[in-house]
Design brief:
The chain has helices at about 35, 45-60, 90-95, 105-120, 155-170, 215-225, 230-235, 240-245, 250-260, 265-285, 305-315, 330-340, and strands spanning about 1-10, 10-20, 20-30, 65-75, 85, 125, 175-180, 185-190, 195-200, 295-300, 320-325, 345-350. The protein has about 350 residues and is of the alpha/beta class. It folds into 2 domains: about 1-130 and about 330-350, ATPase, nucleotide binding domain (Nucleotidyltransferase, domain 5); about 155-325, Nucleotidyltransferase, domain 5 (2-Layer Sandwich). α11 links the parallel β10 and β11 (about 320-325). α9 packs across α10 (about 265-285). The two termini are about 30 Å apart.
């Protein structure tokens, strides 16, 4: 059973073909700034990205009749459950014409749907960015008109949780796990009873290479009144975190600074580990401290320095496992393969 996985990003479209033995084909199709500037909205890039995928599929050597399913990155839908959803016309309409946010991931489901329709095979999304399985008590904030929402790196975090459960030889649904995704954005989640019952989002937890994370709100209010909205938004997402402190979003560069004896770089980088550790501790309270494993994933999890600092602070809660990398295409394909094998059931999207 061969599955085509599609992951549209801001400046590229990654595609891969997997079967039950693993990856058969993979390509990252880059889109230049000049090419993207032609389109007022990201949704308007649909045809260009669709055609680039079609051309890439022709290169793969995989015949049209060999694909069993297509799976796309789940975009910013209204809140959905974890796992697989069949892509239908209602979902495509929502993603393309009425998205919550104009984001490249919205194109994943739409492109998957039209490729699948032409071949008479199913199209899925899997673990959308909008996966929301929060307990009601987790939604309450200190302002009645503001409720917590669940936007996170659900795809990679759930895949990591399932991978961790497999390594332990136990069902995912029977374990209590905390997963931290350490990438350009950092989010954390706690998994209990087969659900992602709470998260720490990228605006309420650790800062990251380029995002500011949780901030003292009184100071932020003053910044907002002293500037305009676009400037502040850019400070929070794009020019925050390591960029704000050290002028780079590269953890490799930061670690090189540390190796040369830069005390400021070490302090800031350790603060990132400190805040991730606080987030893990915060989520441990959600499950009364009864945690089977803590898993670290994402690109920064390749760093022995970072994972070592975190392990030192949170190892008293539970053993720490490291699964470096983002693995999004693999996670998408494995989700679709589980549906095709009958191990999971795909939900029907009906939110409109």
């Amino acid at each position: 059973m061969k599955v085509l996985a599609i992951n549209p990003g801001s400046t590229s479209t990654k595609i891969a073909i997997y079967d039950e033995t693993g990856e058969l084909f993979k390509k990252n199709v880059e889109h230049s700034a000049a090419e993207l500037e032609k389109f007022p909205r990201i949704a308007d890039q649909y045809r260009m990205r669709f055609e680039s995928i079609a051309a890439t599929l022709a290169e793969s050597g995989i015949g049209e009749g060999e694909l069993a399913a297509v799976v796309g990155r789940g975009g910013l839908l209204p809140p959905v459950r974890s796992g697989a959803y069949r892509v239908n016309e209602a979902m495509v309409d929502r993603l393309v014409n009425r998205p919550l946010v104009d984001h490249a991931s919205n194109l994943g489901g739409a492109i998957a749907y039209h490729i699948a329709q032409a071949r008479g095979i199913p199209a899925f999304i899997y673990d959308s960015v909008a996966v929301d399985e929060l307990e009601d008590v987790a939604r309450i904030t200190g302002l009645a008109e503001v409720r917590r929402k669940s936007f996170s790196h659900a795809l990679n975090m759930r895949a990591t949780a399932i991978k961790c459960a497999t390594a332990l030889g136990r069902p995912y649904s029977e374990l209590t796990l905390i997963v931290a995704h350490l990438g350009g954005g950092i989010t954390l989640s706690v998994h209990s009873g087969g659900r992602m019952v709470d998260i720490v989002s990228d605006d309420e937890g650790p800062f990251s290479p380029e995002r500011a994370g949780r901030l003292p709100w009184k100071d932020v209010v003053e910044l907002c009144y002293a500037s305009d909205m676009k400037t502040i938004q850019k400070k929070l997402r794009g020019k925050g975190g390591l960029v704000s402190h050290l002028g780079t979003n590269s953890t490799l560069e930061v670690e090189a600074m540390i190796a040369k004896g830069d005390a400021r770089a070490r302090l800031v980088y350790e603060a990132l580990a400190y805040q991730v550790s606080k987030g893990i501790g915060e989520l441990a309270t959600v499950v009364d401290g009864k945690v089977d494993r803590i898993a670290l994933t994402g690109g920064i999890a390749h760093s022995a320095l970072m994972t070592g600092w975190i392990r030192q602070r949170v190892g008293f809660i539970a053993p720490v496992e490291v699964y470096p990398g983002e693995n999004e295409l693999e996670s998408l394909a494995n989700g679709a393969l589980r549906v095709l094998r009958g191990e999971e059931e795909a939900r029907e999207y009906d939110l409109g």
